[in-house]
């Protein structure tokens, strides 16, 4: 069964069209990641589904029923910004939201135990990882069938991010549906059964990570790290280049011939190359091929 069905969804802010006819289906029991750069329309789509944000046209169904206040009870939502009150304790925050959502009181202790939350500690005293756990607990108070998370890993260190991923996987193992908006390629690859790539208000590709990587065809990626100079020369000669601080990813059809030329350009410009390797394409490389730009 389809947990979420979206047809022809359009949303504008004044003269700016944020969603340009989005079509998307989320299967019951799967983790689907919305992957795209900031400004792609991910948060707008999430807010329509989870916050009741109005839209211009289109159709949305949740488990076969039109999106409404009634279907909202089927959705738990973890926004990018914390909704916990800093001056309240963990237990007080959960009690407040349990009253607001008319959730059973026994869920409070159950969720504190499940997420190892310190009941008497104030929200402002929690680390980023534990604050995200508290927000997850709030979203799960009334036992929703769908969990929606907007950029869940933003601001978390690597250990906290991995812990969060395990929590999300456990939720899926219980037969629930998860929709994640992210611009982290590794998060989408680590968690998602399927990935929907968004760009400029449209869903431009949907599939498993392996299916999407196949869109890169027979291309390889040359990954270079070091103190790099002359990257503008690389961009002139190679069509698809992603540049990060002290790193380059260059998509090529023939790595054997491209690699010597790439090294020649960089070294000739005074680069100090620390590492260079040939890799299989990632989801970011697919995004680059489809849109001509990187995820960030």
Could you give a short description of this structure?
This protein has helices spanning 42-51, 69-72, 90-101, 106-114, 128-139, 158-173, 185-191, 209-213, 231-237, 255-268, 283-291; strands spanning 2-13, 16-27, 31-35, 57-62, 65-66, 75-78, 146-150, 177-182, 194-199, 202-207, 220-227, 240-244, 247-252, 272-279. With 296 residues, it is α/β, with parallel strands linked by helices.
Can you tell me about this structure?
This protein has 2 domains: 2-214, P-loop containing nucleotide triphosphate hydrolases (Rossmann fold); 218-280, Alpha-Beta Plaits (2-Layer Sandwich). The chain is of the alpha/beta class and 296 residues long. Helix 5 (128-139) packs parallel to helix 6 (158-173). The protein is globular and about 65 Å long. It is built from 11 helices and 14 strands. It is 35% helix and 31% strand.
Give the class-level CATH name of the largest domain: Alpha Beta
Structural class: alpha/beta
User: What is the subunit organization of this protein?
Assistant: single chain
How far is it from the N-terminal to the C-terminal residue, by CA? Answer: 34 Å
What is the CATH H-level superfamily of the largest domain? P-loop containing nucleotide triphosphate hydrolases
What does the radius of gyration come to? Answer: 22 Å
DSSP summary: helix tally: 11
Mean pLDDT: 93
Please list the strands of the largest sheet in the order they lie side by side.
6-7-8-3-9-10
Helix content: 25-40%
Q: Could you state the order of secondary-structure elements as H and E?
A: EEEHEEHEHHHEHEHEEHEHEEHEH
Unreliable sequence segments = none
Shape: globular
**CATH fold category name of the largest domain:** Rossmann fold
Give the number of DSSP strands. Answer: 14
So, CATH architecture of the largest domain?
Answer: 3-Layer(aba) Sandwich
Main sheet properties: 6 strands, mixed
Please indicate the count of domains. Answer: 2
Q: What percentage of amino acids are in beta strands?
A: 25-35%
């Amino acid at each position: 069964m389809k947990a979420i069905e979206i047809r022809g969804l359009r949303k504008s802010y004044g003269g700016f069209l944020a969603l340009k006819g989005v079509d998307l289906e989320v299967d019951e029991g799967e983790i689907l990641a919305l992957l795209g750069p900031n400004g792609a329309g991910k948060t707008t789509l999430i807010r329509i589904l989870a916050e009741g944000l109005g839209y211009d046209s289109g159709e949305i169904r949740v488990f076969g029923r039109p999106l409404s206040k009634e279907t909202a009870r089927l959705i738990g939502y973890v926004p990018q910004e914390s909704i916990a009150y800093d001056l309240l304790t963990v237990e007080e925050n959960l009690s407040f939201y349990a009253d607001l959502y008319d959730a059973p009181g026994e869920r409070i202790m159950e969720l504190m135990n499940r997420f190892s939350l310190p009941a008497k500690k104030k929200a402002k005293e929690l680390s980023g990882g534990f604050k995200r756990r508290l927000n997850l607990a709030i979203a799960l108070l009334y036992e929703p069938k769908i969990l929606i998370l907007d950029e869940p890993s933003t601001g978390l260190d690597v250990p906290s991010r991995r812990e969060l991923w395990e929590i999300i996987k456990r939720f899926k193992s219980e037969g629930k549906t998860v929709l994640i908006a992210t611009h982290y390629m590794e998060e989408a690859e680590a968690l998602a059964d399927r990935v929907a790539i968004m760009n400029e208000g449209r869903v431009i590709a949907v599939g498993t990570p392996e299916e999407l990587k196949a869109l890169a065809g027979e291309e390889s990626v040359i990954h270079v790290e070091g103190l790099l100079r002359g990257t503008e020369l690389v961009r002139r000669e190679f069509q698809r280049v992603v540049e990060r601080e002290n790193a380059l990813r260059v998509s090529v059809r023939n790595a054997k011939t491209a690699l010597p030329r790439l090294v020649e350009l960089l070294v000739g410009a005074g680069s100090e190359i620390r590492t260079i390797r040939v890799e299989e394409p990632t989801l970011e490389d697919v995004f680059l091929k489809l849109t001509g730009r990187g995820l960030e």
